[in-house]
Amino acid sequence: MSDVEELKAEIKKLSAKATQAKMDLHDLSEELPISWETIMDVAKRAHSAFAELEKKRADLKALEAA
């Protein structure tokens, strides 16, 4: 498998992870004030997931441009 294909596969997995983190954050917001103590943890997971996804997308764009 080429580097581009591997990166695309990784991006697909990260996208699913980010989508799940987004849904977890959404679900938490709908349940407030229940579990309000977990807001920061859930938000950090969502932030990390999207930051990682964005970095890999930039890596792919750079690789495809080379």
Automatic annotation (TrEMBL):
InterPro entries assigned to the protein according to its UniProt record, in alphabetical order: Helix_hairpin_bin_sf, Put_N_fixation
- Pfam families with a match to the protein in the record: Rop-like
Which stretches are annotated as coiled coil?
Answer: 4-66
Origin superkingdom: Bacteria
Sorted keywords for this record are: Coiled coil, Nitrogen fixation
Query: What family does the Swiss-Prot or TrEMBL record give for this protein?
Result: Belongs to the UPF0437 family.
Output this protein's name: Rop-like family nitrogen fixation protein
